[in-house]
Every structure is written in C-alpha cells, then in structure tokens.
From TrEMBL:
The keyword Transcription regulation does not apply. It comes from the Bacteria. Coiled coil: none annotated. SUPFAM superfamilies: Multidrug resistance efflux transporter EmrE (SSF103481). It comes from Acinetobacter chengduensis. PANTHER family: EAMA DOMAIN-CONTAINING PROTEIN, INNER MEMBRANE TRANSPORTER. This is EamA family transporter. It is a multi-pass membrane protein. Residues 11-134, 147-277 form the EamA domain. Belongs to the EamA transporter family.
Length: 291
C-alpha cells in the first residue's frame, strides 16, 4: 500500500476501477428492483441509506459546519440526485449497457473540453468509436426507446456536473462531501417519492436488505472512492477512464440479466478498454516528464 501511496495516479485508477465495478454490479440489482418498486422510491432510499451509512462510518457530527462551502455541496448533491433518478428511469426502458453508453456522453464531453495534446484526442476518439459500436442500431434485439435515451442523456449531463462539482473544494474531507451531497440529493428526491407513493413493502426485512445492499454498492462505496480518485486525476483522465463504465455495464447486463451483445459490441468493449489504458499510460508519462 505504501508503494501505491507514492504513486497517487495508479492508486486513483485502482479506486476508480473498484468504484465502477461496484456501481455497475448494482445496476443489475437496481433493474431487478425497478420491476417491483417505484423508481423514485428506489432512488431516494438509495441516497438516504447511503448517506446514513457514511454518516456513521465517517462521524459526520465531528465536522465544523462553519467550514462547509454549501455552494459546492449543493451542486454536488443536485448532480447526484439527477444522476440517480434519470439513470434508473432510463434502464427501465433500455438495456443497462446502452443506457450507460449514452449517459457517458456527459463525462466524455468533459474529457474533450480538457483535451490539449494529440494523444488526448486519440484516446477520446477511440472512446467515441467504442461508444458508437456499442449502439445496437438495426441489428439490436430490441429497439431503443427514445424516452429512455433522453433520460440517459439527462443523466449524462448530471454526470458532467458531478465531475466538475467533485473537484471543487467543499471545506470538508472528500468522504464528508459525499455524505452531505448524498443527503442533499435525497432531500431533492424524497418529497417526489412520497408524493408518488412509497409502498410499505419496502420496509419489510426481506426487501429492505436489498435496498441496503443497493445503497452500499451504488452510492456509499463508489461515490467515496470516486471522490478520492478525483483528487489525483485530471478532468481529462477521469472523463476518459469513465469510458470503462459502459463496458462494465454491458458485461453486468450480460452476466446478471442475460442481455445479449452483438459481436460489434464485444469489439466496442475492447476499443473502450484500450482507450482507457492508453489515456492512463500517456497521462502518467506526461507527469513523469514534467518532474
């Protein structure tokens, strides 16, 4: 671990991979819950339980409220709320991997905005190619719902805001920022969930345990790890590396939900992974040359 601490970029990459694996594994669980419970209920409880778990682990009561920069916390929380609700609304209508592919347009736009060197554009272009190949087009086993695509694109816009807001100083530690941001996001979604109706079956032990698992896998763990990674990654690196999300999501959909992939989509996964590895390598090389 001490070796990794001396190489913050590598440590950030490992944390990001764990976060993405956790997030996309939870996507399969969320898609199962969506068939049983309202989407807003799932989204609101995910953030509520996640924030409570982090509040206990990181002792939220010990922070100095006067040091909190609420503008950064609120923007981060709004981004989380939008990402959660819009993404779940999208996977209700379209396959998991395709939803994440369209959602990724958000962080990809951030990566393009920060691209400066020729290699940056090469890796981002490869990521775009992979995303295009992920789309099923006329060979897809099921057509793409335009409303589902719109929800995914909206989630992508919130994802872009999430990257930007996550890099802004909040006056408290990264884990406390995640905890407070998730609570703000929950405050945005909970009134809507209650207004639309929250089934009492949610709180039955046999069901509630799945919501706790979703909160850990989809919020508490990945958002904390991503916040730590954001401290040691540029917006370009983070945005390009997040292109692995559609690949992991597609694999999760294939393994857990039986969603079939075309050969072009398997090739797309290889292209996206190559782009992420290339971006990581050239970014690290550039940093070493500056020393």
């Amino acid at each position: 671990m001490s070796h990794l601490n001396n190489r913050p970029h590598l440590l950030a990459l490992i944390l990001l991979l764990i976060a993405m694996s956790s997030m996309q594994s939870s996507g399969a669980l969320a898609k199962i819950l969506i068939h049983q419970f309202p989407i807003m209920t799932i989204s609101a409880l995910r953030l509520l339980l996640g924030s409570l778990i982090l509040a206990v682990i990181f002792k939220i009561w010990q922070i100095n409220i006067q040091h909190i920069r609420w503008k950064a916390i609120i923007s981060y929380g709004l981004a989380l709320a939008g990402m959660n609700a819009l993404f779940y609304l999208s996977i209700e209508r379209i396959p998991l991997g395709i939803a994440v592919a369209f959602e990724f347009i958000g962080p990809l736009s951030v990566a393009l905005f920060h691209a400066r060197q020729k290699y940056d554009f090469i890796w981002v272009s490869l990521a775009i190619l992979g995303l295009v190949l992920l789309f099923p087009f006329d060979q897809a086993s099921q057509s793409l719902d335009p409303i589902g695509l719109a929800f995914a694109l909206g989630a992508g816009a919130c994802w872009a805001l999430y990257i930007i807001a996550g890099q802004r100083p909040s006056g408290v530690s990264g884990n406390h920022t995640v905890c407070l941001g998730m609570f703000v996001g929950m405050l945005c979604l909970m009134p809507i969930a209650l207004f639309l109706g929250m089934p009492a079956q949610v709180f039955e032990p046999s069901n509630f345990v799945y919501f706790i698992a979703l909160a850990v896998l989809a919020s508490a763990l990945p958002f904390s790890l991503e916040m730590m990674a954001l401290r040691n990654l540029s917006a370009l690196s983070f945005g390009t590396l997040m292109s692995l999300e559609p690949a992991i999501a597609a694999l999760s959909g294939f393994v857990f939900l039986g969603e079939q992939l075309l050969w072009t989509q398997w090739f797309a996964l290889a292209v996206i992974i190559s782009a992420s590895m290339g971006c990581t390598f050239t970014t690290q090389q550039a940093k070493q040359q500056k020393k």
